[in-house]
Amino acid sequence: MQRLTDETVVAVGRLTLAATELEYILAWIGADQADGDPAAVFTVPGEPLRAARGSVQFAPSERRASFIGLVEAAGMYLTQGHAAVRAMWFDNSRVDAATFDEITGLLLRCRDQLQTLLDEAGRAPTA
């Protein structure tokens, strides 16, 4: 693993929190896959995205395409974040604080857009 600057370590922390926030929203969306319990979805690695993908197929027709597109974007951004963190273990990797902050921005924008859709549908998380 490459030696990390303090700035990069903090950026990885921001990315981790942003990814977790996005997964919480995904768990909320996918809660109907677990008898309405978002915690049951949230606590299983990878389950928030899988459950959300299953649930958005049943979103109201006027919002379905938006939900599907954002959930798929969330999956892509989460994958990018995982890949960037894992790249730190390779000698020739080119990851730095700016890379992590860019992905963090994508994760947070996706979270915000999903939150807006949930608010409009009257299904927003209460915590």
List the helices and strands and how they pair.
Layout: H1 6-29, H2 38-42, H3 47-56, H4 61-87, H5 97-120
Helix pairs in contact: 1-3, 1-4, 1-5, 3-4, 4-5
Please explain how this structure is put together.
The chain is an all-alpha fold. It has one domain (6-120). Helices cover 71% and strands 0% of the residues. The chain is built from five helices and no strands. It has helices spanning 6-29, 38-42, 47-56, 61-87, 97-120. The longest helix has 27 residues, at 61-87. The mean pLDDT is 91.
Summarize the structure.
With 127 residues, the protein is mainly alpha-helical. It contains 5 helices and no strands.
List keywords for this structure.
127 residues; 5 helices; mainly alpha
Number of helices: 5
Q: How would you classify the helix and strand content by structural class?
A: mainly alpha
Largest sheet report? none
Quote the distance from N terminus to C terminus.
37 Å
- The level of helicity is over 70%
Q: What is the mean pLDDT?
A: 91
**H and E order:** HHHHH
Could you say how many structural domains there are in total? 1
Alpha-carbon Rg, integer: 16 Å
Shape: elongated
* Total E-strand runs: 0
| Strand residue percentage | under 5%
User: Low-confidence parts, pLDDT < 50 over ≥5 residues?
Assistant: none
- Assembly type of the shown chains? single chain
